[in-house]
Model the fold of this input.
Amino acid sequence: MSRLAHLLAAPLLVATLAASAPAPADDGDDVARQAVRVDAWASSDADGNDTRRLALGWDVVHRDLDHWWGAKVERAEFSGDGWHRHEERAYLSGAGDLGTWRWLGDLGSNGDDLVGRASIHSLDARRKEVFVERDTLETRSGVANGWVHTFAGATVDLPMGERWSATLLGGAQHFGTGRNLRTHLRGHLVHALVPSQGVSLQLRSRYYRNSHPREADYFSPSWYGETLGVVGWRRFVGGYQWRALAGIGRQRNADDAWRRARMVEVGLETPRWRDAWLRVDAGYSDTPVLAGDGTDAYAYRYLRVQGVVAF
Done:
């Protein structure tokens, strides 16, 4: 049996057994249907490292975009100057409620390691979230050696009146390359400047520290810090949600002086139609990477397209 067949065996077995079960009675909008989904991702950095992912999924049970479960297969391609690798993955995926909390997860494998992501968050105004992500380290050495990094953390939203709010994040990241453990702190302060027009002003800061700096071919100084002033815009027009963010600020790490930091993000999300939904996100930032000559380079671009069609 091929490696891909081994990857698909468990998820498809579960999906087949579930699909053979009697369908629930039609009870209006809560009827359990099925769906197909696509998730495409492309990114590149200042050192010419490119990542491409294409995932196709089948929801065995699909009530709505927040309540579903099924199986997914993905092809991930990693490349750079003079090198190219790819992986096939398979996942069991789903989303649903657990009391007053909502969960979302992809549990899968690339044939060698456990990969995926999972999160659970509360549904109240003071939103709490716990998450974990595990994936291939997207550098030449990371892909060649099968290094997998794991990032786990928690966030909390803090409403502060009608126009002010804040979000705090704390987390830890292990890179699978040896001993390095990166600890993260992030904070967002948001002021709704013109609520009727969806305009906000934001202050975004992040800081991390590496326990064993410069361990491999990823950007890992002793510490890194960044602060951005951001203008945000979010509007619903005809049921479509349009989003845009633009920020500028300063960044510094233990091996370099202060330099400019920038970011731009745009997005579009269609209405949550009964049978179809589409979301597109794109962005650019001066996120640093370790260049092939051992110096630091700054730039990161990405594009993501997600779609779901239920039937």
User: Anything to note?
Assistant: Residues 96-303 form a domain with the Porin fold (CATH 2.40.160.40).
